[in-house]
Design a protein that fits this description.
Elements: E1 5-10, H1 16-25, E2 30-33, H2 37-44, H3 55-63, E3 67-69, E4 78-83, E5 89-90, E6 93-94, H4 97-106, E7 114-118, H5 126-135, E8 146-150, E9 169-173, H6 176-187, E10 193-196, H7 199-230, H8 234-241, H9 265-276, H10 281-291, H11 293-306, E11 315-319, H12 335-344, E12 348-352, E13 358-361, E14 364-367, H13 372-378, E15 381-384, H14 393-399, E16 403-405, E17 415-417
Parallel strand pairs: 1-2, 1-4, 2-3, 4-7, 7-8, 9-10, 11-12, 11-15, 15-16, 16-17
Antiparallel strand pairs: 5-6, 8-9, 13-14
Length: 418
């Protein structure tokens, strides 16, 4: 049978869909497989559900031959397969069920000499110890009958400067031939490929990147709490330290850490460390520090309101319910625990976010307010959690009766910073 696709992407989410677009843009014939029939239908109709991918980019990919499908047989027609499925933590343990399901889907459909690349974030050793045995069933030999590599996704949602094409792609192959094939695949899509010695090295690279961010965010969050007690402006200190042209990279405090990467990926590292008998204490401590920030934010709010009328019965408006600015992703957003803790203290809580219509609070869906101006006018306290570009920060500082800014972006006589 003649080869139909250069690449099949399994999992069409935040990691898989940008890969589809990049491959199609560079002349590759691409199939995309996803269990979610709604996603497949949306893509077939030219509609994107991922922030960084526009409807126009989907339309262009379709014109270039992109085939979205919920039929796993598209995998059998592809020379290479990438697996981009979720890998959550459940009770601090890696949940690889989606990866296992995907590999079991790919294994019987893999063409002779076909390449499989796992992109899902996971602990070091997953590619070699978990994926390889499933693909090698039936006396198939890696490096000969099939090729296997790991290449971590490095998508940063909402980043206007760096996307898939200009972010170096790290690749680790099980054998030299595997590494060569995976490197060649990504060289067709990105500006630079960095080939490392093993899949484990590539797996650990992704964990190091996000653990580095988690630990440094925790450091500056602890510093913010310390500066509050000291009576020093933490934002001034960070800005001053950032003037040093070497040896320092600024991280900024916030109401908590959300999303699928920073709160999750270090957990794979600590899981692996415990399994090896080499516990990694810094990532675990950093997670605890960052997890405490929503409670600290609410404590600060309580102190502010105690000087006025107290928390109970106070109308509090939360601005920015996504986990980071200028995206429509609410996964792990600190807005949820902040809202829940305020409700537990008797506050009347509402939220507004131009990118998110509803928020899941205490197990139920809460709709955001429609009119920002009216909500600000009715509030006793406005809490800025994410400084979306849609917000006129200067106007908020002027019109809010009291603004608690966790982003350090506003200035005014009625503004209090984290």
């Amino acid at each position: 049978m003649a080869e139909r696709y250069d690449l099949a992407v399994v999992g069409l989410g935040y990691a898989g869909l940008p890969l589809v677009v990049a491959a199609a843009r560079n002349g590759m014939r691409v199939a995309g497989y996803d269990l979610d029939a709604g996603r497949v239908a949306a893509l077939a109709g030219g509609t994107s559900y991922v922030d960084d991918i526009s409807d126009q980019e989907i339309a262009e990919a379709l014109t270039s031959g992109f085939t979205p499908s919920s039929d796993p047989e598209v995998i059998a027609a592809a020379a290479a397969v990438t697996i981009c499925v979720p890998t959550p933590l459940r009770d601090s343990l890696p949940d690889l069920s989606a990866v296992l399901d995907a590999v079991r889907l790919v294994a019987p459909r893999l063409r002779p000499g076909g390449l499989v690349v796992l992109e899902s974030t996971t602990y070091p050793g997953t590619t070699g110890d978990v994926v390889l045995p499933l693909l090698a069933q039936g006396s198939r030999t890696v490096g000969e009958d099939f090729l296997l590599a790991f290449s971590p996704e490095r998508i940063d949602p909402g980043n206007p400067a760096f996307g898939l094409h200009n972010t170096p792609k790290v690749v680790g192959g099980v054998t030299a031939r595997c590494a060569e094939a995976a490197t060649a695949l990504y060289e067709r899509m990105v500006q630079k490929v960095v080939t490392v010695s093993t899949p484990a090295a590539a797996e650990l690279t992704k964990l190091l990147e996000n653990t580095y961010r988690q630990v440094n965010i925790a450091l500056v969050n602890e510093l913010a709490v310390y500066c509050d007690g000291l009576g020093v402006d933490v934002w001034e200190v960070v800005a001053a330290a950032a003037t040093k042209p070497f040896g320092f990279q600024p991280f900024r405090p916030g109401p908590g850490v959300g999303g699928h990467c920073i709160p999750v990926d270090p957990g794979y590292l600590t899981f692996s460390g415990r399994a090896l008998g080499v516990p990694l204490q810094l990532p675990e401590l950093a997670q605890k520090v960052n997890d405490r920030m929503p409670e600290y934010v609410v404590d600060r709010i309580a102190r502010l309101l105690d000087d006025r009328r107290g928390v109970r019965g106070t109308r509090v408006l939360l601005l920015g319910a996504t986990y980071k600015a200028d995206i429509a992703d609410g996964r792990g957003s600190p807005a949820v625990p902040v809202a829940e803790l305020l409700l537990d203290r008797g506050a009347l809580v509402r939220f507004h976010d131009p990118h998110l219509r509803t928020l899941r609070v205490h197990g139920r869906s809460v709709a955001g307010v429609e009119s920002l101006d009216a909500a600000v006018a009715e509030a006793d306290l406005v809490v800025l959690l994410q400084a979306h570009l849609d917000y006129d920060l200067a106007a908020l500082a002027d019109t809010a009766p009291l603004l608690f800014d966790t982003t350090g972006r506003t200035v005014g006589t009625r503004v209090v910073h984290l």
